[in-house]
Write a structure and sequence with these properties.
496 residues, mainly beta, seven-stranded mixed sheet, 5 helices, disordered N terminus
């Protein structure tokens, strides 16, 4: 039996009685969840408004004991550099929760009708759990074009909506959103597109944390020092970064025996993909964070699975963006040294996964990842890392039709010193033999992966990650299984 929640902040009852002087308050919009630093005991509830509000707050509790606790929300805002509009986002941190427990919550601010949701906290210790992942989503609504006519949000398709329904059919504990969330930087009205994104995703994100990685299309001109100000305002993430300019861009959390490390790859890749070229912006701080996290995870007797979520890719056999040598140079040695099990990405708008890889092919100028096994159905990740490109989240510009058919891939090995006529630095590509290729989906553009942890039964036992890749099919959005496979390794609590 779970203990009743203890109030963080007491509220006089009735909690949500509108006050006479606050009529016309903006409604609650875009309700969404993210984990706090301890997913077993902390959750952040967030929502958007178009103008300032009074007393934003959350009441919460268990189904068994009712809404016995409350938390005040802290408000963040940003001024969109294109329109000058101010966006307000309210984040309420819920704490002292019981691990592995279902909670209900109600959010409101003065003068607004309340909205609500529910969630489950992460289990403590080794326990079964499921999480899902995809990248490159967009938003399935319309916006205004520059000439005042109606247009689709950038890269929008019906799959952008259908995939949210698919996630809810699986009902994971949490979801990893691997960058290029809504492509607002490509639209005339960036604020509207972000709003459309949250309006769509709240159908799932109010019930389970959607944990994002910022991609190149989250970099918006004139929105913060490095263009990521909107992203940093919309999400409250368990960052340990003390520099406000860098807060929330990389972070880590543990759910059960899974340690998830989320990265922001524009810092470390070569490709110029955002509104502003920001390669190297952290001055090495993100790489230092990554190594610290990997070292701690692999030395822990409580962590079995190390999962990295990021946007740009280290493997690709599609004639699209290509793999990035910058990531191979900087991340590859760390992933190998500390035995990362799984890397989930987006960026290429297709599905592809690698064989287990460790080290590089001898003499390769592109640092081609070296396959350590040809297994594709049952893979021992203690031998090597599996990379999954999950860029079929709904975006229109799909690349599954662009896979090379001759066993090769292409790698960005350099970029020009200055931008070309398209405003981007020109990439230099080198072809390689894609000896690391495992499985590709040539037929279907849209889908997501689900990962279910079997923690094993005793110290030192084998733990398994069961993986299912679902297609989200045209025209009605129904799910079908493209493939299933397993990752396995020994638990970290056995003899070393």
């Amino acid at each position: 039996m779970s203990a009743p929640a203890v109030a963080d902040t007491p509220f006089a009852a009735p909690a949500f009685l509108p006050t006479p002087d606050s009529g016309g308050a903006p409604p609650v919009q875009g309700l969404h969840l993210t984990f706090g630093k301890d997913p077993g005991s902390q959750m952040v509830v967030s929502w958007l408004t178009d103008s300032p509000v009074k007393r934003p707050r959350v009441m919460y509790g268990t189904l068994e004991h009712g809404l016995g606790a409350g938390a005040e929300a802290q408000t963040r805002s940003y001024d969109d550099g294109k329109s000058g509009r101010t966006v307000y986002v309210h984040h309420a941190a819920l704490s002292r929760l019981t691990p592995g427990t279902d909670y209900v919550y109600i959010v409101s601010h003065d003068g607004a009708s309340p909205d609500s949701g529910m969630f489950r906290t992460a289990p403590r210790g080794r326990a079964p759990l499921t999480f899902t992942s995809f990248g490159d989503q967009s938003a399935p609504q319309v916006t205004w074009a520059a000439d005042g006519t109606v247009a689709l949000d950038a890269n929008s398709t019906p799959a952008t909506k259908d995939i949210v329904t698919g996630i809810e059919q699986v009902a994971p504990l949490f979801h990893l959103l691997n960058g290029d969330l809504c492509y607002a930087n490509l639209d005339v009205d960036r604020v509207r597109t972000w709003n459309n994104f949250f309006t769509n995703n709240t159908r799932s994100a109010r019930f389970r944390p959607w944990m994002p990685a910022a991609g190149n299309h989250e970099i918006e001109k004139a929105n913060g020092p490095i263009g990521l100000g909107a992203y940093q305002t919309y999400f409250d993430l368990p960052s340990t970064e003390t520099d406000a300019e860098l807060a929330g861009l990389w972070y880590a959390f543990t759910a059960g025996s899974v340690r998830v490390i989320v990265l922001q790859n524009d810092d470390n890749c070569l490709q110029d993909g955002g509104d502003v070229y920001i390669s190297g912006y952290s001055g090495g701080r993100q790489l230092a964070f990554l190594e610290k996290e990997l070292r701690a995870a692999r030395s822990s007797g409580d962590v079995d699975w190390v999962v990295v979520a990021m946007h740009q890719v280290m493997i690709s056999s599609s004639d699209a963006n290509g793999a990035d040598l910058g990531l191979r140079q900087k991340y590859g040695p760390l992933f190998d040294k500390y035995g990362v099990d799984l890397v989930v990405c987006g960026h290429e708008h297709n599905y592809e996964r690698s064989l287990a890889v460790r080290g590089v092919v001898s003499g390769s100028e592109t640092l081609t990842p070296n396959p350590v096994s040809q297994a594709t159905d049952s893979i021992d990740t203690s031998l090597g890392t599996v990379h999954m490109v999950l860029g079929g989240g709904g975006v229109s510009g799909t690349t599954n039709q662009s896979f090379f058919k001759d066993g090769t891939g292409k790698v960005i090995t350099a970029v020009s010193a200055t931008a070309g006529s398209n405003g981007k630095r020109t990439s230099t590509y080198v072809k390689e033999q894609a000896v690391w290729t495992g499985v590709r989906d040539l037929e279907h553009p849209y889908g997501f992966a689900a990962f279910t942890v079997d923690p094993g039964r005793h110290p030192g036992d084998t733990t398994t990650l069961h993986v299912t890749y679902y297609n989200v099919n045209k025209p009605h959005g129904e799910l079908s299984v493209f493939e299933q496979f397993t990752l396995h390794r020994k638990r970290s609590d056995g003899p070393r």
